[in-house]
Structures are given as C-alpha cells and as structure tokens.
C-alpha cells in the first residue's frame, strides 16, 4: 500500500500525486494506491490517513509518501505505525510556518476556499516528532532550490535517513518524474526492517 499525503493548499490533483498514481496504474497496482483530499484540520487529516492505514492487511508493506506538510504528517504516521516514509521537501516546523496562513485561503488546484483556523496550529504542534527513530525507515528527497521551505532544516531533521539532495529544483520538484524510480524502489523494498 502507498498512502500519498499532499501538502498545504494542495490536493490529489498535484503533479507528484498524479504521476505516482499513473505509475501504480501502469504496474497494475491501483488498488494499493490511496491519496485522500486531506482536511485542513491536521487532527481530521490524521483521522483520514489512519482510517486508510488500518485497512492494510500487511503493515510491513505500507509506504507513506508525504509532500511538504504531508511530509510532516508522514513522519508522525511512520513513527506510530513503524512503516517506511518518503519525504518530498517536507515541512519540519509547520506550526511556525503556517501561523501566518490563519484565515480563509484557496486551494492551488481549484478556486475552492477553506478556512485554516487558529486551533489548527495547535493540532499541528500535537503531531510534532522532535527526533525520528529508526532512520532507515525514511527517505528524504529535498531540493536546495525550494523557495518555500529550507532544505537544511529538512536535512538536520532526518539524520541517518537515506537522503537525496537535489541541487536546484523547486518546492514542487518540477522534475519529479526523474526521481520516481528511486521513490518507487524505496517504497517497494521487500523488508520494512531494511527500508
């Protein structure tokens, strides 16, 4: 099972999510693909994700792929479920980064409006992982050209994890197709204890 968690203001329509969905379909594994439209409430978003994870017949075969804020969520879930996680330019300190977004905003892939409430910042704080355990379960893909988040914070937050630092690029990792084989190989590792 691959659970893809999109970022703040993003959706299942993101470029990376669609690319991974197409790859899973190409491999005949679309039934193992999950990419929910996450609630703006972090607590609700985690309830959505956990409802999907709890349907997995084999927890050792779970991989979570998280982009930006989804990477923050993926880290919390990987620690809780002891599964592997791929982090794509992950948010490391979203309570700090998203405080200025409290209010009404829109999604990137539509004109739909939503409210990011003040209490959501506290919900984010409740999901903080101060230090990862079992770094071998993590794969960090971070871009030095990320215009939204600092790749050095990402690097420091995932010590000992498999890390691929992209020179340049951007927050959305525009050339994600180039890295998809590496991401899929990590997700498909035979033994969760080795990945």
UniProtKB/TrEMBL annotation:
A Pfam family that the UniProt record links to this protein: UPF0227
Annotated signal sequence range: none
Record's protein name: Esterase
